[in-house]
Amino acid sequence: MSQVKLIVSNWKMNLNINQARTLTNKLKKIQIKNNLIKNIICPQFILLPIISNIIKESDILLGAQDCHYKKFGAYTGDTSVELLKEVGCKYVIIGHSERRKEHHETNNIIRQKAQLVISEKLKPIICIGESLKERKNNKYLNILEEQLKVSIPHNLDEIIIAYEPIWSIGTGLVPTEEEIKEIKNFTYDFVFKSKNISKIFFLYGGSVNSENISKIFESSDINGALIGGSSLKFEEINKILTFG
Questions:
Q1: pLDDT above 70: residue 191
Q2: Which of 98, 105, 134, 164 is catalytic?
Q3: pLDDT reported for residue 3
Q4: Alpha-carbon distance 163 to 236, whole Å?
Q5: Does 96 qualify as catalytic in the annotation?
Q6: If we measure between CA atoms, which residue out of 66, 2, 10 comes closest to residue 240?
Q7: What is the pLDDT of residue 55?
Q8: Taking CA 68 as the corner, what is the angle to CA 65 and CA 72, rounded to the nearest 5 degrees?
Q9: Residue 32 has what DSSP assignment?
Q10: How confident is the model at residue 23, as a pLDDT?
């Protein structure tokens, strides 16, 4: 590997305080020989201050799973980017398919979130992905193009895009390396031409584990991975972080 690889652990709504402390303390002890690998963990909101304190003076970076698109206001149950920044977050996952589906987030809302995150000097990780039906009907590129077109702001210095096909999340189904590479090349071309962004980090997410990550990285030449279930198991995430 000759370029930076982002390994983003999305813990979702998992781990209690003791479990999160135990896992994080173990993560701190991992010896990552490749200094181009960035280890980013994204816990539940209530865990953020606790994890932030544990990872001080370590190379682990903190991320959030979401934020509101407004800086502050009467938005019960939401969390502001200002507080995320205050507890030490450097990254924010935006537009995950679970947020799009369960919370009815539109591409417009995702773009507003991304703009706010960037204005606060944090880095958004913007998620895109198609359903199995859209893939089978050969409409996946149209769906992804619309997501990229509306969700991503223009004229940025850089952007992080995570491709997570909905049909792959938690199912064990993984696109072929050729399919991932197709989406990567499509994304690079579209974002460069239509958004005037030349520095693009392309991540893959969806049933990533220690057994398939090397093949995915080597064959698809991607810039990292957004990892769900495997990030909750120390043995798995340890292998993933040290595979190179």
A1: yes
A2: 164
A3: 81
A4: 21
A5: yes
A6: 10
A7: 98
A8: 135
A9: -
A10: 98
